[in-house]
Amino acid sequence: MLPWARAGVGAVATQSMVNPGYGPHCLDLLSQGIEAAEALERVRAVDPDHDVRQVGLVDASGTVAAFTGARCLDHLGQQSGDGFSVQANMMRRPGVPEAMAAAYTSTPGSLATRLLAALVAAEAAGGDARGVMSAALIVVDGTVRPQPWEGVLVDVRVDHHTDPLGELARLVGVAEAYRLCDEAEAALVAGDGAAALRGAESGLALLPGEGNLLLSYIAALAGAGRIDEARQQTRDLIAGEPGWDVVLRTIVERGLMPLPDGITVDMLLAGP
Predict the structure, then answer these.
(1) How many helices (H) and strands (E) does the chain have?
(2) Partners of 16 in the β-ladder
(3) Fewest 10 Å CB contacts: which of 7, 17, 54, 65?
(4) Kind of pairing, strands 10-16 and 53-59?
(5) What is the pLDDT of residue 271?
(6) Strand partners, 173
């Protein structure tokens, strides 16, 4: 499976004998305001091997189009619903698309959580007839951006793994933790200490002990005037990896980690 997505434009998933051009070409057409069904038909029309392709796409408005070629391998199928399309081929048993659709529509939470639930349901319903191999997941926001790499919320992939879905789930959690970390750092720069603390704490709840997230938490604590707590967190960070001493000093010296007036990096590094 190859997933493609562009913020504010749409998403494409290609399977079977993959032609990598389907993703970028469909997204380019969607970005020009062409409807999903026409975009897919235009790309398929110039592909001499379209009968071995399986493609699903959804545009930013939630309009869906999908195609399964006549020469794709059993067991196979597709199912579309409100703002989503699921496809499967070369499955151990029939019924996989139906299981995916049911899981996606019944699972609460973020889009990444619902997509992951659909993949897990596919495996539980039979999965790939060749066994587990890889998994990938991309989520973008709904705002059109000037560059295709902007607006990406989650972009994780696992290849040649004995438990690709388990590892994908872990990486989705890591991605969410770092997204919260990014929000915390943006809030800190904007002077919103309360939001910075919330973001850093939420990120660490998902990924306890992660050094980069701890650094954001230290900055947020210092910005809130909670210097003793910031100092303790700094000691814990450096105890786990002494190299953070140099990183912390350099970040502060370069002006990349704002500290309150009267607070220096040596104060954070000082012992009790």
Answers:
(1) 10, 8
(2) 53
(3) 17
(4) antiparallel
(5) 59
(6) none
Q: Return d(Cα 272, Cα 236) in angstroms, integer.
A: 12
Residue 97 neighbours by CB distance under 10 Å: 27
Give the separation between CA 142 and CA 98, rounded to whole angstroms. Answer: 27
* pLDDT tens sequence across 130-167: 999 999 999 999 999 999 889 999 999 999 999 999 99
Q: Which residues contact 105 (CB under 8 A, 6 or more apart)?
A: 81, 84
Rounded CA separation 261/123 (Å): 55
How many CA atoms, within 13 angstroms, populate the side-chain half-sphere of residue 13? Answer: 22
Which single residue is written with the structure tokens 């790939």? 128
Q: Which residues pair with 71 in a beta bridge?
A: none
Q: pTM of the entire structure?
A: 0.87
Q: 21 is written with which tokens?
A: 């051009």
